[in-house]
């Protein structure tokens, strides 16, 4: 059984959300419909600013607006935010700790546009940028709720945003929360930490592994920075066999590095297998093809667990494709309770 | 027939010479420093602070405080160098200083107009202070962190657009240097500000023909700058940046629907002709020998005596 697929959840949600927030303005650099704000522009034309295909000016300009009390929501492809205009991001937005929201679409290899369009080191760079908050959406519920999370932050926020057909993995009643992981399954053998679209892959892998008797504590990470939820270290400590991280990003500087830093800071010795792009650029092809080619799919997560346990489970891609992705109610409730603490 | 200069010109002239003298004195005491920027921009800065800008009044000059940390969520008491420009208001101007390498000249200007304590330059470039060599937004009179050049104009355009939406009548003034027109962002900013008709944005440029490597003409191509600026949609007036009448007229020009750029052609050795011997490397003055320093000391004394008369 497959999860509910929501078509373009950001489009209507952002319009409704911004209705009573006159301080929210949108800046776009010629990727308005591509960033799902075409209808927003038509709904609030006096709060939408076309900045031309000129990202350096757009980022600095947003800093100026933020200094005067507006909250600019920059909408463009993730790569053009941090690669094209990093000095502007750092000096005009991050250093002065301004309330600019950088909504980056097409994170990682989610685009057939090839290397120029694939943001593969954005989390690493922006995690290293002082004052930045770095968030990543993993499903439709998070696409809808990340706006409240971002808006509450007194400083700049970068969001890896999903667009188009987005699965709903988490109930609407469980919105994203800053610096809180979601516990998606429980087990003491392996801790699996996934972010973004890797969570869907992780859910498939965990179901199949569970049937083989492998206990996996699966955490979904939506907050790359801050990354201080005590549940993270607690889960890493419980993982008797080892830890797997999976990210739609290079394994240098992103989620896997975040986990490694947490382990080292705590003096905790655990094997860690990092799934992600292995210090390489990618190329233009379908998401499915690229996830298979670069080892980002559910089979790769199974393989990582097999490396840790030195077992072979005989799991096939066909079996993984058939997995139900519903989050178990018991774990979901536990996660909700933990969140309220 | 000789007519007496208007009173405002006397005050502006005094401030301009005062800026040069303060910077000159500092460079002599310090053994090196940014003198040519004060030579070229003294009239522009004096004009801005004594005549053009409408800034909030200060009860008294501000004594520069220590560095108290960078902006961030854990530093809620952080304030910017904008406090030296007085309280803000909807009808008041804002002044954004882009070439942070001119900070010494800016600090001198702030002292001349009673916004920075008279001995403020003693803290220049001191560890733990805010009167930094290449100022950041905690430094006196500096509202944005612009040491990475050509980011100020875009930010100022954002501030100007926000102010227009709020109905403010005050303007946003930016001072730039000509070298910043080699950065692509400057052209992005002009084109976009013109596209959005941001006419409360006013720019004054010190076109002294100098940059770090030497003469602008040997570093890049800034030919036909006024024509280029106009082609990008802004208004541009090219004047002699040491001529107070020309500055006053150009800075008052109304340009509805377009940002306005006053391109000031200036002499980086203005007031200190001795500096020409160092041409084309005028970015910072370093004395080659005690004898050379003595010649500069004599030039300073002569300037001070002439000023006293």
Give an account of the 3D structure.
The complex is a heterodimer of chains A (341) and B (309). Chain A is 38% helix and 21% strand. By secondary structure, chain A is α/β, with parallel strands linked by helices. In chain A, strand 2, helix 2 and strand 3 form a beta-alpha-beta unit. In chain A, helix 8 crosses helix 12. The two termini of chain A are 33 Å apart. The C terminus of chain A is likely disordered. Helices cover 38% and strands 12% of the residues of chain B. The mean pLDDT of chain B is 96. In chain B, strand 7, helix 8 and strand 8 form a beta-alpha-beta unit. By secondary structure, chain B is an alpha/beta fold. Classes of the chains: A alpha/beta (341), B alpha/beta (309). Chains A and B meet through helix 3 and helix 5 of A and helix 4 and helix 5 of B.
- Sheet with most strands of chain A: 7 strands, mixed
Strand content of chain A: 15-25%
CA radius of gyration of chain B: 19 Å
> Measured on Cα atoms, how large is the radius of gyration of chain A?
19 Å
What gap, in angstroms, lies between the N and C termini of chain A? 33 Å
How are the strands of the biggest sheet of chain B laid out side by side?
2-3-4-8-7
The number of E-state strands of chain A comes to: 14
Assign an overall shape of chain A: globular
Sum up the structure in keywords.
heterodimer, A: 341 residues, alpha/beta, 7-stranded mixed beta sheet, 5-stranded mixed beta sheet, 38% helix, 21% strand, globular, disordered C terminus, B: 309 residues, 5-stranded parallel beta sheet, two-stranded antiparallel sheet, 9 helices
Q: What's the short version?
A:
The complex is a heterodimer of chains A (341) and B (309). Chain A is of the alpha/beta class and 341 residues long. Chain A has helices at residues 9-18, 38-43, 55-67, 78-82, 86-94, 122-127, 140-151, 198-211, 230-238, 255-265, 287-293, 298-309, 317-321, 329-340, and strands spanning 4-7, 24-28, 48-50, 71-77, 101-105, 133-136, 157-161, 165-168, 182-185, 190-195, 216-221, 223-225, 242-250, 272-277.
């Amino acid at each position: 059984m497959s999860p509910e697929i929501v078509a373009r959840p950001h489009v209507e949600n952002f319009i409704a959300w911004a209705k009573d927030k006159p301080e929210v303005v949108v800046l776009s650099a010629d990727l308005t419909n591509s960033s799902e704000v075409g209808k927003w522009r038509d709904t609030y034309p006096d709060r939408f600013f076309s900045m031309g295909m000129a990202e350096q000016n757009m980022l600095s300009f947003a800093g100026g607006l933020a200094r005067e009390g507006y909250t600019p929501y920059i909408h463009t492809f993730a790569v053009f935010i941090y690669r094209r205009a990093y000095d502007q991001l750092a000096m005009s937005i991050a250093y002065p700790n301004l309330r600019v929201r950088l909504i980056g679409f097409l994170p990682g290899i989610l685009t057939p546009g090839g290397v120029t369009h694939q943001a593969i080191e954005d989390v690493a760079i922006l995690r290293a940028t002082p004052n930045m908050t770095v968030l990543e959406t993993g499903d439709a519920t998070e696409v809808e709720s990340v706006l409240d999370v971002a808006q509450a932050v007194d400083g700049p926020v970068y969001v890896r945003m999903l667009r188009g057909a987005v699965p709903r993995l988490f109930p609407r009643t469980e919105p994203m929360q800053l610096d809180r992981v979601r516990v998606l399954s429980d087990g003491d053998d392996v801790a699996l930490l996934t972010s973004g679209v890797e969570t869907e892959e992780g859910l498939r892998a965990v179901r199949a592994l569970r049937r083989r008797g492998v206990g996996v504590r699966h955490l979904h990470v939506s907050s790359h920075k801050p990354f201080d939820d005590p549940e993270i270290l607690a889960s890493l400590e419980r993982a008797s066999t080892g830890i797997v991280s999976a990210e739609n990003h290079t394994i240098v500087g992103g989620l896997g590095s975040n986990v490694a830093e947490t382990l080292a800071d705590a003096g905790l010795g655990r094997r860690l297998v990092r799934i992600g792009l292995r210090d390489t650029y990618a190329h233009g092809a379908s998401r499915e093809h690229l996830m298979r080619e670069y080892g980002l799919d559910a089979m790769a997560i199974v393989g990582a667990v097999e490396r840790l346990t030195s077992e072979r489970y005989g799991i096939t891609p066909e079996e993984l494709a058939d997995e139900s992705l519903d989050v178990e109610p018991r774990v979901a409730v536990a996660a909700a309770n933990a969140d309220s603490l | 027939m000789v007519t007496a200069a208007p009173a405002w010109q006397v005050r502006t002239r005094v401030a301009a010479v005062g800026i040069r003298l303060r910077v000159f004195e500092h460079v002599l005491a310090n053994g090196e420093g940014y003198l040519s920027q004060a030579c070229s921009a003294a009239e522009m800065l004096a004009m801005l602070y004594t005549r053009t800008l409408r800034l909030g009044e200060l009860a008294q000059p501000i004594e520069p405080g220590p560095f108290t940390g960078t902006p961030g969520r854990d530093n809620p008491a952080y304030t910017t160098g904008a406090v030296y420009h007085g309280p803000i208001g909807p009808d008041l101007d804002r002044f954004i200083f882009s070439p942070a390498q001119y900070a010494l000249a800016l600090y001198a200007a702030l002292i001349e107009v009673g916004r920075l304590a008279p001995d403020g330059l003693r803290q220049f470039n001191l560890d733990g202070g805010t009167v930094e060599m290449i100022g950041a937004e905690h430094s006196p009179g500096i509202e944005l962190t612009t040491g990475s050049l050509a980011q100020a104009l875009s930010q100022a355009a954002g501030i100007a657009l926000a102010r227009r939406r709020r109905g403010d009548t005050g303007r946003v003034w930016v001072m730039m240097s000509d070298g910043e027109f080699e950065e692509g962002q400057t052209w992005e900013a002009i084109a976009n500000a013109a596209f959005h008709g941001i006419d409360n944005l006013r720019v004054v440029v010190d076109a002294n023909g100098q940059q770090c490597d030497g003469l602008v003409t040997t570093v890049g191509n800034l030919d036909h700058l006024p024509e280029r600026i106009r082609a990008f949609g802004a208004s541009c007036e090219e004047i002699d940046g040491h001529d107070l009448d020309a500055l006053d007229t150009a800075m008052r020009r109304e340009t509805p629907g377009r940002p306005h750029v006053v391109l000031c052609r200036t002499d980086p050795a203005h007031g200190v002709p001795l500096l020409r011997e160092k041409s084309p490397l005028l970015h910072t003055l370093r004395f080659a020998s005690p004898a050379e320093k003595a010649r500069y000391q004599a030039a300073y004394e002569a300037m001070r005596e002439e000023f006293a008369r």
